[in-house]
Write a structure and sequence with these properties.
3-stranded antiparallel sheet; 11 strands; alpha+beta; globular; 8-stranded mixed sheet; 7 helices
């Protein structure tokens, strides 16, 4: 499967899906400065070659994070331009944490036979500000995180659609956000309220989203999941397969 997928392009698309509303470039380092829970939007991705000494770039980057009142966090992927970066950070006591796996599904191989019938109903919320508030409420976010999520979606140059499952009483029980760029669709923020766990709501909602993606011409679906997250097994049933790993590095006090 991966022979037909440009993984570097997939990484670029996934970055577009979580593009920070604040950030800057520092000598080849893309520095996201968006406050909020999502580390993807507030970290360094060292995509491009640097021309200045590492120490100069690090000092300038640390200053930028400090000014934004954010911890200095690096995201390490197979696409980092400097192959010594991870070791350099480790030598400076930047600890590795939150390893994650990028999973990919060629949608022509989508598997739906395992999805259980459910009495839930599903709908998209076209008002993205309202959708962001619903997602944030279900995640338990504070007002700052809610506002940041809504702003990132508002500024996004790609297609964001938030879908929700409702039980028989009309209560929101599951959520999933699809972010579409051309023929790639990313799945984000999949979750179920505590009272609705193990009832198949999230799987049925995801099946609805992926089927819609197929019907509208999407070719590739992808998602990012913590390496130790049992939900990996759920995604594998749909046909998702792990393609590459990434992790974060930060000073011990900031590694969370």
């Amino acid at each position: 499967m991966t022979a037909e997928i440009n993984l570097r392009r997939l990484e670029e698309i996934s970055q577009n899906a979580s593009r920070p509303d604040r950030g800057l470039m520092i000598d080849g380092w893309s520095v996201g400065l968006s406050p909020g829970l999502a580390k993807r939007s507030r970290c360094v991705n060292a995509f491009y070659p640097s021309t200045r000494p590492f120490e100069v770039n690090l000092a300038e980057t640390q200053a930028a994070f400090a000014e934004a009142n954010l911890p200095c966090i690096f995201r390490i992927t197979p696409f980092v331009s400097d192959p010594t970066l991870d070791a350099r950070l480790e030598a400076l006591v930047y600890v590795r944490f939150d390893p994650a796996l990028v999973m990919v599904l060629e949608l022509s191989k989508l598997q739906l036979g395992h999805v259980r019938p459910t009495t839930a109903t599903f709908s998209m919320q076209d008002d993205l500000a309202l959708a962001a508030s619903w997602v944030a409420e279900m995640r338990g976010d504070d007002a700052r995180e809610t506002a940041g999520l809504a702003e990132r979606w508002r500024l996004s140059s790609v297609d964001v659609s938030a879908s929700f499952a409702f039980d028989e009483a009309g209560v929101r029980v599951a959520r999933s956000v699809a972010i579409r760029e051309h023929d790639h669709v990313g799945i984000f923020d999949v979750g179920t309220v505590t009272e609705g766990l193990n009832r198949g709501y999230a799987s049925a909602l995801l099946a609805t989203q992926l089927s819609h993606a197929v019907d509208t011409g999407a070719r590739i679906a992808y998602l990012q999941v913590r390496a130790d997250n049992p939900a990996r097994r759920i995604y594998e049933r749909f046909g998702f397969r792990g393609t590459y790993e990434y992790w974060y590095r930060a000073l011990p006090s900031d590694a969370h």
